[in-house]
Each structure stands twice: as structure tokens, then as C-alpha cells.
Amino acid sequence: MRRLSRIVAAAAAALTLTAAALAYPGPGLVTGDVVVHDPTMIRTPSGYVLYSTHGFLEARTSTDRIHFTRAGNAFGSPPSWWRTYSPDNDPWAPDISQQGGRYLMYYAVSSFGSNNSAIGLATSPTGRPGTWTDQGIVYSTTTGSDHNAIDPNLLVDAQGQWWLSFGSYWTGIRMIRLDPATGKRHPSDRTLYHLATRPDAPYAVEAPAIIRHGSYYYLFASYDRCCAGLDSTYKIKVGRSTSPTGPYVDRSGRRMLDGGGTLVLETHDQVVGPGGQSLMSDVDGDLLVYHYYDRNDNGTPKLGINLIGWDSAGWPYVY
Asked: What is the span of the domain harbouring residue 139?
């Protein structure tokens, strides 16, 4: 009888997991060159531009948000300071936005598994590849730091203040205030804010992306293991706060600083380990732009784009 109860319980759990997986939509249709990691996208007067990890920040363009074509890199050659943090001059996880008539791109330079890392800033008049001018380091960490300067994301709040969230396999997501005049760290507010972590080593929370919707700020973050193909366990969770600096809580009220986070997207069907996300507002709504590993293509990393909906309680879901 006890064995039968265990079998019934296991079957019920499997059905629950299957139902949860079926609740997630497939990625929206994308074609062309869509093999990416850590994508960020913006719409410009001449069409969409998407940047991603590697290759001096790989660039892709699209006129319809469906078909993407490789268009070189953001940079033609690496700034000299990159080599201090990445012997291979390999930048990661760009974040593009348009502010005050110019385009900004924050990005990380590091080597895998190291917190000797830095976040840089580049500016452009058009946002197109080959037009970027590097502005140097915004924030850096060393091997003695308890967090990591990777995966930056810019937020301009309702009062026009600028914030940069980032990190981090080391103790989770951090945030600093920026000076809008320079795009770099604020000269007087030097507080290092802590937005999210988890109680279990290695405290794997990274890739923050924050959006304002209604009266809340929503922090999307990637949890667990990235970059392992079909063995990846990445998933995207969210919490919200009335303040950019937190505290962020999930749907149940648990703080993200205590390991909370409401699932937005996880492994389902051919989609394995979705994460490395960015957020974008377009003419048809808010978008979640992310990478995943394609179970039907030997774990090749692919571009995922889904629209974000908002339920009656103000919580996001993808469709």
C-alpha cells in the first residue's frame, strides 16, 4: 500500500510538471542567423538591431523582427582595457537603449568562472554596428570581491534617475546609481544595493533586467546553470517592488533576497535552459528576448522572443 501511494504521488508530480510545461508557449517565429547568447534588441528608424555575446559583440539586423541577418560586430577592434579582464577579448551580455538622442550599450568583459570582471559603456549616434565609441569602465570587481561585474542592465526610473543592475554568480544581483550626464557611476550616491540572491551555493542568480509597469518595477533574473547545452538548467524568475532598489518580492510575498522568485519561463518541449534575457517595449507590447538550447538541434543556442502579458494581479507571463 505504501509503495502504491508512492507511485500515485510520483505520477501526480509528473502530471503537474507536464501541465506546467504545456503552459509555456514556444518561442515566437524567428529565422535567419539566430544562434545567439545573451541577446539585447532595440528598434531604430532603420529597423531592429540585436547584439549578443562574443565576437566584439555580435550584431544582427532585421526589418520585421522575424528574419535576422548577421551585420558584423559593435566594435571593429577591442579597446585596450578589455585584455585586463578577458585574455581573449571576449565581451558578454550587452544591454542597448536609447537615451536623450543617443544610443547606449553597457556590456561585460570577463572570463568564464572569474569575478575579475568589468562593465563598460559605449555610445553611438545610430545604434548600428561599427558606429560605437567606447567610453571605458563603469564598474569593476576583482578576485577578492563577493560579487561579479557582469550582465548589466540600465533602468531609468519614473523620476528620471538612472540605475545599473548587474551580476552575478557571487551573491546575486547588485545595483548602483548612475549619473545621466556621463552614464557612469553617480559621484555622490556610491551605495551598492543588493536586489536578489539565494540561500544555496553557488547563489546562482544573474542576468537582471528591470522594467516598470504600472506602479511597480519588475526584476527578471536568470537562475541556475547556463551555457551547458542540453544540460543547462537556466530558468527565468521575476519579482516586483515599488522602488528600483527593492525589496523585490515574488507572487507569494517572498523576498528575492531570501531566494524568492516567481517562474516566468523554464525548460519545456524543445526549449532547454531559457535565460540570459533582456526586455524591450515595441509597438505591439513588451517583449522578453532570451536565448535557449534547442533540444531538436543538438543543444544549439537559439534566439527566443515572446510577448509579455500582464494578469489581473499585475504579474507577467509570456505568450
From this structure: 2-318
